[in-house]
Structure to design on (179 residues):
């Protein structure tokens, strides 16, 4: 399965890097392909290293203004002209999406895929990997949106919140009929 992972390119502490590495190793050992932003820095590098070391493939989609930070040993690397094209290419190459910890770029990517799901433009499974409770506040906001009628479909149809990588991968593989 081609699993698109949206995540930070920042250097983060162990409470985020250790679970990210564990998830990456699960992906690689499972024979999955990582589709990611292509960066050779921060948490993006941690995940790419883990997937590759465990035998998985790497498909990167960087963007022109970040091309100098793109990983050189990926199985495939595409350089998009801008962030909008990058998001479209990432999603086009994916069978599923996992949102890991990140900043505004990650949040932008997460809300894009959820909006596409809300409007029936994709059926691919989406997981928010809630490492160290990072997305607790977002989950609460989404629940409020559902409770107050802002979501035309149930929240559970849009996104699965996983507390760890094992739960995230199990959900994706089950959704794809691999379990």
């Amino acid at each position: 399965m081609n699993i698109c992972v949206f995540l930070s390119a920042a250097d983060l502490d162990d409470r985020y890097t250790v679970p990210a590495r564990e998830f990456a190793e699960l992906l690689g050992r499972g024979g999955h392909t990582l589709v990611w932003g292509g960066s050779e820095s921060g948490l993006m590098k941690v995940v790419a290293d883990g997937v590759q070391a465990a035998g998985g493939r790497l498909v990167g989609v960087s963007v022109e203004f970040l091309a100098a930070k793109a990983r050189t040993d990926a199985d495939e690397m595409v350089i998009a002209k801008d962030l909008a094209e990058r998001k479209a290419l990432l999603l086009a190459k994916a069978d599923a999406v996992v949102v890991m910890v990140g900043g505004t770029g990650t949040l932008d990517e997460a809300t894009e895929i959820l909006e596409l799901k809300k409007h029936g433009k994709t059926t691919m499974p989406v997981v928010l990997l809630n490492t160290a409770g990072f997305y607790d506040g977002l989950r609460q906001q989404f629940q409020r949106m559902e409770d107050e009628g802002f979501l035309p479909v149930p929240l559970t149809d849009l996104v699965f919140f996983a507390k760890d990588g094992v739960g995230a991968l199990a959900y994706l593989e089950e959704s794809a009929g691999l379990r």
